[in-house]
Amino acid sequence: MASDELIIETHGLVKRYGKLTAVDNLSLVVPRGAIYGFVGPNGAGKTTTMRILTTLITPTAGDAYVAGYSVVQHPREVRRAIGYMPDFFGVYDDMKVWEYLDFFAACYEIPERERPALINDLLALVDLAHRRDDMVEKLSRGMKQRLSLARTLAHDPEVLILDEPASGLDPRARIEVRELLVEMARMGKTIFFSSHILADVAEICTHLGIIESGQMVAQGTVGEIRQQLMPTREITITLLDRVDEAKEALQHVVGVTAVEDLPNEHGRHRLRVLFTGDDTGISAMLQALASRGLPVVNFAEETRDLEAVFMRATKGIVT
Amino acid sequence: MTAELSTRPRGSLRRHLFDNPVVLKELRGRMRGARAFVVLTIYLALLGAFASLIYVAVSESSTRTSGQANVGEIGRTLFGGIVAIEMLLVSFIAPAFTAGSISGEREHQTYDLLRTTLLPSRALVLGKLLSSMAYVFLLLLAAIPLQSIAFFFGGVAETEVILSFVILVMTALLFSTIGIYFSSRSRRSLSASVLTYAFATFITFGLPIILGSIALVLGMSFSSIQSPQAEVILLYALGFVLSTNPAATALLTQYILLDQRTIGTFSYTLSGGQTVTLISPWIPFTILYLVLTVVFFILSVRRVQAIEE
Predict the structure, then answer these.
(1) A109 neighbourhood in chain B, CB within 8 Å
(2) Does the pLDDT of residue B228 top 50, yes or no?
(3) Measured in whole angstroms, how far is the alpha carbon of residue B62 from the centre of its chain?
(4) Residue A118: pLDDT above 90?
């Protein structure tokens, strides 16, 4: 049974197409209110998982729950709870922007009298109010993507399931979509989105799931994943002088595994410290240097970017 | 910012017929711009030109043979000609509207979007059918003034007009539903169109030829027996064959109306002198076409409902 804090939950999910196993014993956990980045190389099983969660296909084995409802037993309740955006934009010829939203709002059983105000609100949110009466097919790709996002919100769903929302967009449109996702999360929506572009995920998501060959490689908060896949933290210290003394002091701090010399920069000495402890340990490290009156001019933790984490998790099969 | 999700009673007639989002969307698209009106104008111009040709041809020949124009015959021929053209158009326009209805959603990549909404499968299929029928109705209604010209000449009763309308609507209904059925089975609209037209052509031309040949062979073997039962069976078999075909149904119904003055049942005297009761073919035709429409409608809904395994 699904728990209340989790908006999406799968247990041992399997999807086979003949001999091909697209999703292999996948257990997914998305907490309510999260921005969950579902990352993996092309063909890893992201879209198949999303199609199961949106009731478009049935799993071969395992369970999947969205908002507490089984996708197999209660597909209608699941559809009411989700806003789905596939990785392509479905275009109707001969349809104006407002008509597109009106049609889908009607499909979600929104009463006719409420639709005009709703459409105006949605268009304002995605910054398309000025294109209200234009034909959908005349919009740019980025605008279509924003219109698609507006469509997913028509029935005020709890969770948005977005398949590659930034795929194929120019940098500006990509940033706009990213900002919209953050805005939607601020509105209280849980966002579950897939991507094979790490930059899209790294900047906005609170949670991360890394999938490869249909299997979940790692999942959790971004911090947890970094910790899980890259347990060592890296601190760079810049000193004016007394390098050996500093090395000596650092060796005595609990959690320090290695202290290495880095090439000098503008005549300043630099050290790289590999550390396995928590933030209290880092504070203790700084205090150890300061209490000896060492001339520290810079003390910074190197943030390991998600790309490095991803490369390690997916054995390099990244596209 | 967004509206509260409303839940209205499911299955209400208003929701299905008049509040169907698919009907509204399809009609908006179809009637937008000049295209719909250009099609209607060309259709009426062709129909008008054809009616004029019939008038000229029939009045000429009628004057030549009897010395004076038989206005009743002109009226009947004019009416019959227009109905025949309408039947041809309905048989081939109705499936054209629906053969791409579901497969077109797949091609436009909107099928998945629709299936993740709360729109029931039957509302999607019904919406496609109703929007197609609405345009067919428009074509048929627009031709009524042309048909009415026949009344100036006489020889045509209101009953004939109503019956011809019923037969045309039934034809459009079944052929539209068959279009939706093949569209729901096909990934591409092109293959759906090919299958639909093959089926429509089979019903219009193929089936009568096959069943007619069978009835003829049976007739020849029965006539050698010369039994009244065999003659009755043959009559009913022929009646059934004719009832599968809209054109044959229309012609025979009109013949029975003029000959027997009835649109229901009538008595027929067999070669042995006994009489049997027969039904005007438009009745079994309507029942058969309605049943087939319901069957194909249910099959289409099931197909749309099916979740990919």
Answers:
(1) 5-8, 118
(2) yes
(3) 32
(4) yes
Q: B309: nearest CA in chain A?
A: A58
Q: Tell which CATH classification among 3.40.50.300, 3.40.50.1820, 1.10.10.10, 3.20.20.105 matches the domain A6-228.
A: 3.40.50.300
Instruction: Tell me what the mean pLDDT of segment A30-37 comes to.
Output: 93
Tokens of A267: 């005549």
Host H or E run for residue B11: none
DSSP type of residue A37: E
**CATH code for the structural domain at A231-303:** 3.30.70.260
What is the distance between the alpha carbons of residues A177 and A204, in angstroms, rounded to a whole number?
Answer: 11
A82: which chain B residues are within 8 Å (Cβ-Cβ)? 116
Is the CB of residue A89 less than 8 Å away from at least one CB of chain B? yes
Measured distance CA(B88)–CA(B95) in Å, rounded: 12
Chain A residues inside the 8 Å CB shell of B3: 105, 110-111, 114-115, 117-118, 156
Tell me what the mean pLDDT of segment A54-81 comes to. Answer: 93
Q: How far apart are the first and last CA of chain B?
A: 37
> Domains of chain A: which residue ranges?
6-228, 231-303
The mean pLDDT value for B185-209 works out to 87
C-beta atoms of A115 and B3 within 8 A: yes
Alpha helices in A67-164 (DSSP H): 75-81, 97-107, 115-125, 141-152
Nearest Cα residue in chain A from B31: A94
Q: With an 8 Å Cβ cutoff, are B3 and A117 in contact?
A: yes
Mutate to test the interface with A, among B117, B121, B304 (most CBs of A within 10 A): B117
Best CA proximity match to A191, nearest among A174, A209, A212: A209
Q: In whole angstroms, give the CA distance from residue B82 to residue B79.
A: 5
Shortest alpha-carbon distance between residue B115 and chain A (Å):
7
Cα dist. A199→A148, A153, A179 in Å? 22, 25, 13
Domain regions of chain B by residue span: 20-305
Distance CA B60, CA B81 (A): 16
Q: What is the pLDDT of residues B91-122, one digit of tens each?
A: 888 888 899 899 999 888 899 999 999 999 99
Token digits of residue B194: 């090919």
- The continuous run of DSSP H or E covering A214 comes out as none
**Structure token pair of residue A53:** 């969660």
Residue B32, pLDDT score? 85
Asked if the Cβ–Cβ distance from A56 to B110 is below 8 Å, we say no
H or E segment and range at residue A82:
strand A82-85
Confidence check: pLDDT of B30 > 50? yes
Q: What is the ipTM of this complex?
A: 0.82
Confidence of residue B65 (pLDDT cuts 50, 70, 90): low
How many other C-beta atoms can be found within 10 angstroms of the C-beta atom of residue A138? Answer: 11
